[in-house]
Amino acid sequence: MSLRSLFSNKWLIVAVKLLIIALVAWFIRDTLIKAWRQIGEQTWHWRPFWLVSAGAIYLVGLLPAAAYWHYVLKVLGQDVHWANTLRAYYIGHLGKYVPGKAMVVILRTVMVRGRRVDTAVAAASVFFETLTMMAVGAFMDAGILAMRLREEHILFWGSIGLMIISGLPILPPVFRRLARLAGIGKSDPAAAAALSRLGWSTLLAGWMCMILVWVLMAASLWAVFRAMGITDIGLIQYGPEYIAAVSLSMVAGFLSLIPAGLGVRDLVLVALLVKLFAPGGINDALAAVAGGLLRLIWLLSELIISGILYLWRVYH
Description:
By secondary structure, the chain is mainly alpha-helical. It has one domain (about 5-315). The chain has helices at about 5, 10-40, 50-75, 80-90, 100-110, 120-150, 155-165, 170-180, 190-195, 200-225, 240-255, 265-275, 285-315. The mean pLDDT is about 80.
C-alpha cells in the first residue's frame, strides 16, 4: 500500500490521530515529571515575568522556521494556507516526545495534506526544513566553539561531525537523490518534478531564517537565567555562548533519536553551560536547574500554543 493510499483511508486517519494523541500524552507526561524532579532538586529564586518571557521568546523563535517550511512547501508547488502551515508546525513539535522522529513528520503531514498538497512531497519538506535548522545550528556552534573554546577539541570536532551529518542531506542534489531512493516520485512524476524545484536559493533562504531561530532560542535561555535571578551573564556580552549552548545540545539531542533528546540534550547543555559560563559563576547545580527549567518552559509553551491553535481550528 502506498503512502498516498494509506492516508486516503478516512477511518485509518481517525485511528492514527487517536493513537498519536494517546502516545503524545503519555510521553509528555513522562517528560514533565522528569523535568520537574530535576528542578525540584535545587534551591532557586524564580521571577515569573522572565519565566513567561522565556516561553514567549521560544514560541516567537519558532516562527522563522515555520515560515521557512511554508516557503519550502510553496517552492515545491504545494497549495497550502499559511494558517494551516503554522498550526501543523507548532502542533507537530509535540511529536518529538514520541520515540523516533516519525511522529513529527506524520503530524505535520496529516495537518497540511489536501487535494492540492501531495502527501509524500509534504513529508519530504518536513525533513528538509528540520535538517536545515540542525545544520545551521551545528555550523554556528562550530564557529563559536572555535573562537571561545579552542582547547575543547572534542566539542569542536563533534559539532563539525553533527554539521556534516545534518547538512550533507540538505544539499539540493543530495536531497533529491535521497528522496528518489526513498521512493518519492517513482510512481508519480509530479512529485519528482516538485522536488526538482529545490535549489540553492531555497537553501540560502533557510540559512537566513534559521540563524534568526537560533538567536531567539539563545535569548530564551538567557531569559531562563534572568528568571533564576542570575543577571551577571548578559545576552549581549555572552550572546555567542548562549547560541553555542542551545544549538549544540539541541542538535545532539535531535540526532540521538531519543524522544525530545531527553538525557542527551540535557547532558550536553549542562556541560556547555559550565564550560562557557564559568566566569559568570555558573556551576553544575545552576546549570542543571537552568537545563531542566528550559525544557519544562519550552514544553509548556508548546502545549499552550498547540491547544490554542487546535481549538482555533475547531471553532473556525
